[in-house]
Structures are given as structure tokens and as C-alpha cells.
Amino acid sequence: MYALNTKGCRVKTKTQTLRALCMWGLLCASVVGIHVSCVSASSAAAKHTKTQLSKAPAWVTDAAAVYPDSLYLSAVGYSEQRSGAEIEAAAALTKSISQKVASETSAAQSMEKGSPTVKKSVSSVVRTVSQVDKITGLTVKETWTAPDGTEYALAVINREEVGSYYAQKIRNCENGINKLIVFASEHPAGFEAVSALSQAVENAAENERDMAVLSVVHPAKYKLVSLAYENKQAVEVLLRREIEKIRIAVDVKSDVKADVKNVAGERLTAAFMNVLNEAGFASSVKNAAPYVLAASFSATPFETASTSDTRFVRYMLNVQLSDTRTGKTVLSWSTGGKEAHLSESEAVQRAVRTAETEIKNSFLEHLLKLS
Description:
The protein has helices at 14-38, 50-54, 58-61, 63-66, 82-114, 120-123, 159-186, 191-217, 219-223, 232-245, 263-279, 344-370, and strands at residues 2-4, 10-12, 72-79, 139-145, 151-158, 247-255, 282-285, 291-302, 311-323, 329-341. It has 371 residues and is an alpha+beta fold. The strands form 3 sheets. It has a 5-stranded mixed beta sheet with strand order 7-6-8-9-10.
């Protein structure tokens, strides 16, 4: 119930006000409890008395005093078990670096929006990296058991050592990517080039993850990195251009008695061409091309023990993608199954529809793995 004040407005009674204050106090207490439980760095030791803290190593309450920020990255974890404390410390340090990477990513994006002339080779290398899940060189340096049995652990990263490791790893990866790009340029308009550039894209993605870590671990070494291939996006452009150079002729043969007008062959031809065009390849029907996609489709009726009027067909689609210049098979793929309907012709049409779906999903997946 509410009371009315002299102005006719509703106001809470004294009982309601006291109840609200009690609820607010409980809420504040729960929030404080949540906050304290989430802290796992130097304030983690706050659960001990001052007497107990006086016995703790300096790094428990102030890791930077023992491992200065200019030389190390560090984080403290605690648990009832030693192994749990070490895991918590490592996780806290990894999370801290991940958050810094995300922060630098956001800053880089704002910088690019504000100034179109900013070099993307430097500012965008961490743009696609928002989560760091593993860092080489992260070690547990210290452990301590508190008087109440709580285990503490300190995880650290030596900036110079780990920074040097990642800087060298990035250079080695860059050299590998450059070789793949050169190989692709020497074998143009073929799946060899596409395969090499696909690998280069994967390697470039890994290099960007390593650069994201380096940008936090050792910013000075990170600023010295200058990639000849620029970034992953630049390699992806090279890959797309190479795919566009590849011409594939599509030839589908249908062996279906119920399909007199060869509708199945035409539909499956269209399905293959749509998939190839979607992936970026240049496709045509039976025209001369360096590559030929030859497919055969069959749908054969079969009897079952059932006494119903349902008609069954067993279908099979076999595909071979070959290089006409060398005679080598680049890709083999097949799919098949059973379909049923009251009429044989409709059962065949169902089989064709299923094959179309398989071409769009399964065949495209295999093709993209190849490329």
C-alpha cells in the first residue's frame, strides 16, 4: 500500500521504506561478494589477515615489485590445490593478454577510421584476432602455501625472451609464405597454385595470431615487423585471383530410364556450375577447358518386401575433376542413397533434388578443401 503526500503523490510508508533499505543492503552485499570472488591477482590475498599476509612473499600482493612490468607480464592465481593455482595463474595471464589484444584491435580500427592514410600493414594485423588461447613461454615461476592451506602461484612471461621467440617465428613463417606465393606465380591458372595460396592464407592467419601476442609482450619488437606479403587479406586476394583464372568444363551424363528428356542431367549440370561459380571458378558446359568435371548420375528402381504401392529408386552420383593437360585426376567425389514415392518418376525427381543438395553442401566442401 502507498500513502498520499500533501501534493497528492503516492509515497512509500515507513515499513515499505525499511523493507527496501534491507533489500538494497542484501543486494550490495551480494555484489561485493561477487566482486571479491572474481579478483585473482594481487588482491586475491586480501582474504588473509594482516598477520598472515606479513608471512607471504612480496609477489603475492604485488607481483610487479618482484617481476617489474618493464621486463615481465605476470598474474597470480590461487586454489585449494597447487595444480589448480597454477592453472588459474596461467589462465589469468592469458586472459589479460587477450584483453590487451582486443583493446589494441579496437584502437587500431578507430585509428584507421579517423585517418585513411594509416598503414594497415601495422595497424590491422591484430584486427581479426580477438582471442588468444595459448602463449609459448608462459611459465609458473613461484608458488606459496598460505597458513590456511590456500595455494598461490605466479605465472610470468619474460618479455625479452618470449618477444624474441615470437619475432623469429613470425619471420620464419613470413619466409614460408613468400615461397608459397612465388611457387603460385610460377604455376599459374592451376590447382597447384590454388593449393599453395590456400596454405599461405592459413599460415598468414597463424602469423597474425603470433603478431597479436608480440604486440602485447614486446611492443618495440612488434613495431619492427614489416611483412613482404603485407597481411592475410592481401594473400586472400591473390588466392581469389588465381581461382578466377581456372576454367572448368562441366559434363554430366544421366542414365535414368524414367527421365526421357534428361531433366536430371540438366539440373545437375546447373547445380555444379552454380557451385563452381560461387567458389569463383570460371565454368562452362562441355567447352574446351584445362579442367573437366565429368559426372555420371543413375537412378535404378528396386523391389522391396513391402506390399504397398510405394516405388523405390537407388541413385548414385560419381564425379571426377581432371586436368586435361596432364590426364591427372584432381578430385574424386561420389554420393548416393535411396528415395521413394508413389510413382517411379517422382522418386527419381526426389533423388535428383537430394543430389542437388549434396552438390551444394558436400561437394562444395570437398572442392574448397582442395582449393
